[in-house]
Amino acid sequence: MLASCMQVLALCQEQFDRADNMTDRLCALQALGRLDSTAFADASDVFLASEPTENALKWLQVQATCSPVSYTHLRAHE
User: What is the helix (H) or strand (E) element at residue 67, kind and residue range?
Assistant: First the structure.
């Protein structure tokens, strides 16, 4: 069971890393948010940094719906 979870996590991370459009990248980010808090935190930082103005609202929506993100993590991106 653990091996299959790790495989799913690896596939989601790969999809996020290789995404060449917003839809694929956002879907991968949402999947990571439901699977692993460390991978999600790293990917969400990359997502926001890539296009801060365009991605800010999408980033907030994903943060609100996918994970128990700490208030400190959200404040770090003000």
Answer: none
Q: Which residues contact 26 (CB under 8 A, 6 or more apart)?
A: 47, 58, 62
Q: How far apart, in whole angstroms, are the C-alpha atoms of residue 40 and residue 59?
A: 11
Give dist(CA 2, CA 53) in Å, integer: 38
Length of the chain: 78
User: What is the value of pTM for the model shown?
Assistant: 0.77
Residue 71 predicted with pLDDT over 50 = no
**For tokens 């700490």, what's the residue?**
70
DSSP assignment of 1-54 equals: -HHHHHHHHHHHHHHHHH--SHHHHHHHHHHHHHH-HHHHHHHHHHHHHHSHHH
